[in-house]
Design goal:
The protein is globular, with a radius of gyration of 19 Å. It has 2 domains: 173 residues, Rossmann fold (3-Layer(aba) Sandwich), CATH 3.40.50; 90 residues, Pantoate--beta-alanine Ligase, Chain: A,domain 2 (2-Layer Sandwich), CATH 3.30.1300.10. The chain is built from 10 helices and 9 strands. The strands form 2 sheets. Strands 1-4-3-2-5-6 form a 6-stranded parallel β-sheet, sandwiched between helices. The chain is an alpha/beta fold. The protein binds adenosine monophosphate. Adenosine monophosphate binds next to α2 and β5. The site of adenosine monophosphate has 17 residues, from α2 and β5.
Length: 281
């Protein structure tokens, strides 16, 4: 498996794969610290695309000034081993100057959506995400790009962006991979100590409860949110950021849970901010 460092190398690789092998190109954008959730995206890409690139880039513009950019886990060698084992053909690992050349002044802002859910408590986050994903899609010329439902608001922002910019890449959304006890896998789970790890289950518990209530016929947003909040009330050390039921396209709150609505939660466990969600079936 090759490791590419520049946009030019990635573009050349992608064009060669298409020209020589007639391959479709899949891209799996990540920030590294790869786990089974990322592996599931790579597997989905390998199953559908002739050639697959995994990008590993801790994107500074999507972190707020007081967030964890500096201490975000960086496990490059293990990431490459995982990507190779899952069948990826190249890893794209640019440095910050490569993605943001000196004086870079161009950003992608998906207005409205970027201020909802995580965007409310992380101003500028989705602007950073939309900008870096645009750069990755342009550089890779990917036919398909793979994202996790885990970051459901990000998916809504990127779908809007791809539609608005008339980008040629198809976005593929893969299900949330969880630990056996329900915790959604996240690169940030390594921040949790044993006590926090146990408390972190509050998020998946709230999500599961809402799913069960909907399955039992409950549709009222107020009732569903109240039930989720009650789960959090039992764990006062877990600080809720949001519990919301929204339209997954617009991220606007809805009064009634409907097929395709998104129930999403975010909460701090100690100093670690975690997210989880379910799409109403
Ligand atoms: P990240 O490295 O955290 O930026 O994540 C890269 C991609 O992996 C994003 O599309 C995430 O939504 C996806 N991802 C992260 N965690 C999971 C998970 N537990 N299950 C499925 N996909 C995930």
């Amino acid at each position: 498996m090759e490791i590419l460092h520049t946009v030019e190398e990635l573009r050349r690789w992608s064009r060669a794969m298409r020209a020589q092998a007639g391959a479709t190109v899949g891209l799996v954008p990540t920030m590294g610290a790869l786990h089974a959730g990322h592996a599931s995206l790579i597997q989905a890409a390998v199953a559908k695309c002739g050639k697959v690139a995994v990008s590993i880039f801790v994107n500074p513009t999507q972190f707020g000034p007081h967030e964890d950019y500096a201490r975000y886990p960086r496990t490059f060698d293990a990431d490459c081993a995982l990507a190779e084992a899952e069948g990826a053909h190249v890893v794209f690992a640019p440095n910050v100057d490569e993605m943001y050349p000196a004086g870079a002044a161009t950003f992608v802002d998906v207005e409205g959506l970027s201020e909802r859910l995580d965007g409310k408590s992380r101003p500028g986050h989705f602007r950073g995400v939309a900008t870096v994903v645009t750069k990755l899609l342009i550089a890779s010329e990917a036919d398909r790009a793979y994202f996790g439902q885990k970051d459901a608001a990000q998916v809504a922002v990127l779908r809007r962006m791809v539609t608005d910019l008339r980008l040629a890449t198809e976005l593929v959304v893969c299900p949330i991979v969880r630990e056996p006890d329900g915790l959604a896998l996240s690169s940030r789970n390594i921040y949790l100590n044993a006590e926090e790890r146990a408390k972190a289950l509050t998020l998946s518990r709230a999500v599961r409860l809402v799913e069960m209530l909907v399955a039992a016929g409950e549709r009222h947003t107020e009732t569903l949110i109240a039930a989720a909040r009650a789960v959090f009330a039992d764990e006062p050390e877990v600080r809720v950021d949001y519990t919301e039921l929204v339209n997954w396209d617009s991220l606007e709150p809805v009064d009634t849970a409907m097929p395709g609505s998104l129930f999403a939660v975010a909460a701090w466990v100690g100093t670690t901010r975690l997210i989880d969600n379910a799409v109403i079936g």
